[in-house]
Amino acid sequence: MFQLSKKSDYGLIALKHLAQHSGSISAREIAMEYKIPAPLLAKVLQRLVRKGLLISQQGINGGYVLARDPAKISIVDVLEAIDGPIGITPCERGSNCEQMERCSVRDPLMKIKVKVVRVLGDTSIYELAMN
Amino acid sequence: MFQLSKKSDYGLIALKHLAQHSGSISAREIAMEYKIPAPLLAKVLQRLVRKGLLISQQGINGGYVLARDPAKISIVDVLEAIDGPIGITPCERGSNCEQMERCSVRDPLMKIKVKVVRVLGDTSIYELAMN
DNA sequence: AGATATCGGACCAGATTGGTCGGATATTCG
DNA sequence: CGAATATCCGACCAATCTGGTCCGATATCT
Fold it and tell me: Which of A102, A115, A129, B120 is the most core-located residue (most Cβ within 10 A)?
């Protein structure tokens, strides 16, 4: 298949929300708004913090804020922060591919990957928030 | 994640091979050549037959042949034949998405999907076989 | 008739992912 | 200072998905 994970989906929803509302917003607040399991969303947001896309504030009025201009956060940034580097081919993701030396489609697929990543990189959270 | 399944990978390898060699070729032959589990490859090829991308020949000298000009078979055709219609978002693939009405990223993601599909549709098996 | 190929479904096991839980730390407020 | 509330972080469980296998049936050529 060729689909983004629910975690990535949640991450995009949250980032769009943060781009549309100013101030620090807690994970639970966003989770309730979109009916996302709160602990799961929290974990997703934590990964975004670790990758420098979000800034977290602990304490009683804590929450999350975008770390930079939403126009400078692309979809790829989010996907890679949550699910790890994008890999079109199975062999790109650790799975010990038996074909390796015989594989005749890896190189062409890499070129396609570059194009796909470009598509994903061309859209920012800002544009997401405007649509 | 954002990766094509091994089955799709196998399918592309097989189609490329068929585009490069003329005549009817058996699943087992291709499987041995690329060290792919034979029964699995057979199943993959069956799906391609059902979708009209391949023509199968039963019997003792049977095997598979491309159903049409490799330049007229795109990567999307193959992926959709093997893994079903491409769905970027989780909600596109039957998973009963709780967000549905609340979901704020579905429409923008659809536009991205169109672009991705276009990228995949722009490359044909013929081009795959030339690289 | 027999050998070899696809066909087609059911079936199993391992990996991945969605989702949960609990303790630790930081921050604000009474 | 202590209680409340938030993030943090890892371990953990359960369900789904996928890679892979098996078996009987059918078709075709020798």
Answer: B120
